[in-house]
# Entry
Amino acid sequence: MKRYFPLFIVLFCTAVTYAQIDRTKQPKPGPAPEINLKEPLRFELMNGLKVMVVENRKLPRASMQLTIDNPPIFEGEKAGVGTLTSSLLGKGSTSIPKDDFYEEVDFLGASIDINAQSASASCLAKYFPRILELMADAALNPNFTQEEFEKEKDILLTSIKAEEKDVSAIANRVELALAYGKNHPYGQITSEETVNNVTLSDVEQHYRNYFVPANAYLVVIGDVDFENVKELVTQFFTPWSKAVPPSFTYAKPSDAQYTQINFVDVPNAVQSEVTVQNITELKMKDEDYLDALLANRILGGGSQARLFVNLREDKGYTYGAYSSIRDNKYSPMRFSAFAQVRNAVTDSSVVQILGELDRITKEPVSDEELANAKAKYAGSFVMALEKPETVANYALNIETEDLPDDFYKTYLERIDAVTKEDVQKAAQKYFSTSNARIVVTGKGQDVLENLEKVSFNGKEVPVLYYDHYANKTEKPGEVSLPEGKILKD
Amino acid sequence: MKRHLPKALVLLFGFNFLIAQQVAFEEYDLDNGLHVILHQDNSAPVVTTSVMYHVGSKDEDPDKTGFAHFFEHLLFEGTKNIARGEWDKIVSSNGGSNNANTFLDRTYYYETFPSNSLEVGLWLESERMMHPIIGEIGVNTQKEVVQEERRLRVDNSPYGAFFEQLLKNLYDKHPYRWGVIGSLDHLASATLDDFKKFNKTFYVPNNAVLVVAGDIDIEKTKKMVADYFGPIPRGAEIKRTEVREEPIANTIMATYHDPNIQIPAILLAYRTPGQAERDAYVINMISAYLSDGESSKLYKTLVDEKKIALQIFSVPIDAEDYSSYVVGGLPVGDNSIQDIKDGIDAEILKVQTDLISEKDYQKLLNKFENRFVNANSSISGIANSLAENYLLRGNTNLINEELDIYRSITREEIREVAKKYLKVNQRVELEYLPEQKNAN
# Structure
């Protein structure tokens, strides 16, 4: 008898516990976890380099990130000089030959990456002092050589060639060029021709001009000691000469005069890249910054947003449809709503995306949508605390974006305070249906006939044609006209 | 004597560090066969709930391929208690994020939440396992979506077909041969009953592992796991037939034309041991030796010194029955894929002939130590490793022991394994080429 008793208890308990939950309703979440936002420790060097340190001993590792917060650089006829400068950096220094440098970094199991306006490295904590030293040396004393220049130029030219038939690379290039204009840093096109204009001395000059400490921030995170970091950084970065980058102006990007389709023919495409875009001016410090983020979130910020639910879950046109709003303190930016869709539904997708843009500007969002969007932001904010770099990123944003000191401390409250009216106002301000540029990159033979019939709010949407480098061209398959004339339908 | 003492202390200290880094976990089975792994880490208010099912493309009927991946989509369509379209709303209204992925041997579903929504995560995953809705609307929509996924990832994407092409050539009989996304025709013609049957066979507690990791209380979590998953009935035992391939005797030559590319690529693929086997770890070391970092042999010779490659790569692709090891590159300028192939072969021959240097060996160990430390930096990453180590490698504790395996591999072993598996006559040589001009 006695021996059966425990088993009986187990069975009994199991039966009782199973009965206790109600599966038909979503369980209520517990009380919100407490958030503890720490501050990084800081110091500044005489040359202007600002340093932030986050001590985090959870894992025996360290990472360092140098950011140079310069305005965007227009490269014009020499587009590609920035890319080449990046490629030529991080190949040793004036005192350490390239092979020895690579060998030592790899031997320590570490990685160092130097770019035209940034540098980063990560390693086990025990190698931190040496890796910081190597990173600083390679960044501040680069050894530019003609041989490496020729090699990297060959690689860049081959990469440009490699993208010639890549539908999304073509789409991306043309979208940016049309949104910003080719005379803007974000719209300029790097081509075989511009790369061939670049010389080694252009690279050296680009480096001298822009790799300067005036707007530079170094963030060190991990199993490190503040005093030790301060000593090492001071030693390795004090030789960096104080300087400010040159400034220049460029044309401000502007929207299309009327809503139009810009078609780019890529005969090998089996899907069309559809992007509806307009220019916005949004900075993190703007009053309605969070309103704009929430409006974008509800429109196209994820798998429960309107674009995804409509184009994928309801219609099955695409694997995913999203939208992005971008902030920038230096330049107006592109807002875009986009999807890759199968050829046969290209026109319908344009209509659906425009319809969603129209709806979110004309009607207030639902209470449920707003509550879910807020919850998503709040959740992401809480979960981001898992990463030690989060507090450093926040501190960096406060500095570089000119934000109030309590920007992140009040973040959750401010998210919570956003109303449906705020969201609609932001949608009206930042999403355009009257001056939208609809860039469609796809197979003209399959999609054009229907695309030319697209109308929106009772008006036909004109189609203009562009080549793979964003130059106006004629309709694919049409007979050429004398230069200067553009075929309209 | 005295001078040695500090060194000993340092060593002791170092050892303690690794102990501190141990990923502690508890594992047990429910009566219905569901394996449960719990890992508690209260340092951030984050929790991951995840289920890995032991079903992948290799479990499919050769005439009905693509099912496992299709289920990755279908099982978001709702359950008896969660209406269609509600799943993602529930996740985001709790501030979480979720996704799923499918491979040759397994399918993984997961959510990460602020830790106050742990119970929501358990409810969601238990609903999915207990009574998903498999209906016409969901099936028809996801058939379209999966077609678009294929176009996006394979048909419209430069080099997008390489894995599919390699598998097709590497395997003759083994169900790895049709790849993960499978046949769109099979999916189009599949019936609701086909899907229901597949679900009943594979998506059962005795074919799955549940991981709960992060800011949890172990005892409370155990109780909730029992409440939500305990009542799910055990499924029938799954019969798996082991398919063994004859070793490749003569080099398999293959060509593929991709309309989305301009630069050809050469891919050399070897069939290597399943991921749980020691030799698979040795292959990982060989791969790092050849292509990880700028001082690695292939990068240094082909990209840096001889300047014949735009890009060079080598990737071990882990799987349960066989892994594959793929080495390849893209030529730069006027160089040819033959030049790259010759360069790769010369380096592999050296690994097969000479011992790698003591210094290179130490470099490899340092690299793997670095990887090991970084592997466990996020809760969702830890959950994934725990599930995979249990389900596909049969040892959950590999998350703590993996580095020891690498440290125990000798230089001689590296040479032997290179000799054994990286033979020219035992590989697939895939010439991955731009479409010919006259094709349009």
Remarks:
- Confidence is low (pLDDT under 50) at residues 1-17, 479-489 of chain A.
